[in-house]
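Page 42, continued from yesterday. The earlier attempt failed because a stray header line got pasted into the input along with the sequence. Redoing it now with the clean sequence only.
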Amino acid sequence: MKKSFLLLMSLIILITLAMTALAADKSMPGTIVSENSVSCGSQTKGKKSTDMMCQEYVIRGGATEYHVRQDKEAHKALLPVNAPVEFTLNKDKMKFKVDGKGYEMLVVSESADSGTKP
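This time it went through. Structure tokens are written below.
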């Protein structure tokens, strides 16, 4: 009786972990809606201080809009607006692909889609 109970509990835990892992790997479809240049800090050289600009993209996925910025200075390429993307979210990071090239950006904010009617 005790062995069968332990076996059943182990099986339930294993299935739960497997389903959680599968759900985390699912990518969601979305579209790049817009791109804006925003200030993301300043750089000081001697007495001169210059503002650094970053690209901020709005990606619409389902009924949610995500505002994302480049996480690293290396992502300087401009992404096409209205391009379809497949993205995954992990905490405050978004990984997505555009035209076969992968990107990882920082999620700055998210909101309900402004074009969606309740």
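Notes: The first helix runs from residue 2 to 24.
Reminder to self: strip header lines before submitting.
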